[in-house]
Amino acid sequence: MKLYNLKIFVLILSLSFSLFTKADTSENLCIDDKNKYLNNLSEDILPKKISIEIKKNKKWQKDNFKIFISSGTIKKEYKKRYSANVNVLFQNNISCIFKAKIRRHGDFKDHIELRNGNIIQSLDIHLKNGHINGITKFKLLLPKTRGNPDDEIILTEFFRSLNIMAPRTFYVKVDSQSNNYKMLFQEKATKEFLEFNKRKESVILEGDERYLYDDDLNHFTDSAYHFSLSKISNKKLLNKNKEYKKIMIDAVASLNIFYLETLNHYMKENHYYYDYSKIKNVQLDKSNEMILKKKIDIFHNIIFASNSFHALIPHNRKFYWNAEYQSFEPIYYDGNSNILAPLDIEKLPKNKKFFSSLNTTIDLVNNLDLLEIRKNIRKNFNNEKYNEKEIILKLSMILNNLVQIKKLEKNFDIKESNYVDYNENLKTYFKNIKELPHQILPIFSNSTYDKFYECTQIICKEVSFNNQNLIALLGGTYKKSKKYYQFIGIHKIENKKLKGIFVKKNDLINLSYQNSNLSYNKNDYTLNKISSNTLEFIQKIPNTKITIKGGSINNTKIILRLIPLEKNLNSKTINQKGLTGCLNLIDLDVKDIIIEIENANCEDAINIIRSQGHIKKIESSESTNDALDMDFSNISIDDLIITNAGNDCVDLSFGNYQFNNVKINFCGDKGISVGERSKLFSNLSFIKNTDIGIAVKDSSIAKLKDANFDNVKTCFAAYKKKQEFNGGKIKVKKTECLNYDKKTDIDIFSEITHN
After folding, report:
1. What is the model's pLDDT at position 6?
2. Do the domain assignments include residue 90?
3. Do residue 647 and residue 743 come from a single domain?
4. What does the pLDDT read at residue 432?
5. What are the distances in angstroms from CA 519 to CA 162, 253, 389, 390, 571?
6. Residue 238 confidence (pLDDT)
7. Is the same domain home to 559 and 639?
């Protein structure tokens, strides 16, 4: 009792001081000294120290005290965001001051503690300006909340080396009361996170926790594990484009099939989250592409080999809906790993898919560049104590455990399981939700996504949701009159009754072409194969898509004859695969191909994604919007000829691009736009009749040998547009600008040089 009173006294005393060291706002080197910002603050330099000044510090401290002496979980009322200044000192001793919104992170009180008379806690931070290594939203975690924090750093790096998404994670000093505390910096799963992992923006999903921690009941409800389905974490995606509505509903509905089966298995077998031996993986690995089908199993293999079972708790799971492939990709999160612990053989799933994927996983791990992984791990320790031998041991242990698990296969009687039908799982869910102290109202969508129904097992009634409420519904936050609205899935609904799950009609034609897959809707296009190396498509319906993905194509001419679109008709739409191009080249190796396209009526005439190689010629005319959009690619083009594009003639992002001969005429906005951490080398370019000749922005660099402009408002523009990037650089050797308003347009973050 005396010890407790002393603790309280120390805590009260600490309230008279600031929680964090006050940042010096007298000078912001990031902004005032552009050369240092541009040249020295590269996006791979880690912060040395982070100091935070909370604006309403007394209120923050008062709440800290209430949390500390309270019992149970940390209530939502203490998770409101506060305005703050975040002072970041980088390893190169450049200091930046950012405005931010900050809140406490964590549900349990392991995320808050008293240390040396100061309260410290895990934090959730949203920067309002600026970024840290391209990250604008992140967590500062007390290391103990991640079990073995060293293992968290190791495993996140290990997963990324296998092209499995995991948050960038590293140690950092947080300055509190002139005392430095080691914390774990971890980025949040956001648009920037996806882009860093070379994924296009799409739906990010996670387990729904809202039934677990109830402020009305003021306790943790363990039984809610039986009822928690999935939700969308980036739910405001719907505001970006109405077409995302269908993508979001599809994603949640598909994942909930998996969650319903998981929860039903948990109830029936009294097994915990790690045992998915009787659960269909089919809802997770829906892609026809073998590498994606195996990715889920590879992920599970590594989870078990590294003793990271905590990541398999349903509400801890995170997924990326790869709309291009109509499949889920796992996102590693919060594994609470213990790599050196003995294998828990009892937890191994007795599942054929799990064991059959082990050889693939072992081969992938054997082919990893372990020296590079160790280098990155060492960097992420960020000058904290680093034991090279221990890191080597842990990396070796993951591989050894995989091999050991494979050897154990013969010890188990592994059979195909009899899975429970979806409708049976749904009936069980209807029955079980009655046990919760909450009232849950199950919501379903019809197959056209335009009507919603509140259903019981017996009857359905139509309900409506405006855009804001639909975002809340899919994001797992819609609550009205203490009633929880839970979106379930897409169903046939007849005579006010559920008639089973809706199955989409598939009108896609899938063809093997050379070493790639060619797909399009049979109602949208006619394919004329003029010869073995020529593909000609005749469009039947405007704004429809063709996809060539995976593998390689060589020495091929692709011709698209498209239907002209009325000028005033908005064509800026995506389809349910998240595709924007009339022609989409995805994950493709190309060599000596030619593309001709006219009258493109999509958001992009041509969209090249995560592809590499050489293109002889691209010729585009009369595009309604962008003519050529390339993302996450490494492409060289000999001849690039574009005439009449409603927006940008060329839009480049997240890649390396080389153009030999460019002829661009009549662009609605920019001739060439180089953005989002891209590099462009252009040998000879002629750009006429555009607003901006060449624009370089957002941590991008353009090296131009000979650039010529005529009748443009601005010849060169270099600037910072998006928060998560720096400015742009243009280096030009020879240029001629005729009939222009401004030769250059440059902001304080950027530079243009003539050599």
Report:
1. 43
2. yes
3. yes
4. 81
5. 27, 24, 50, 49, 21
6. 85
7. yes
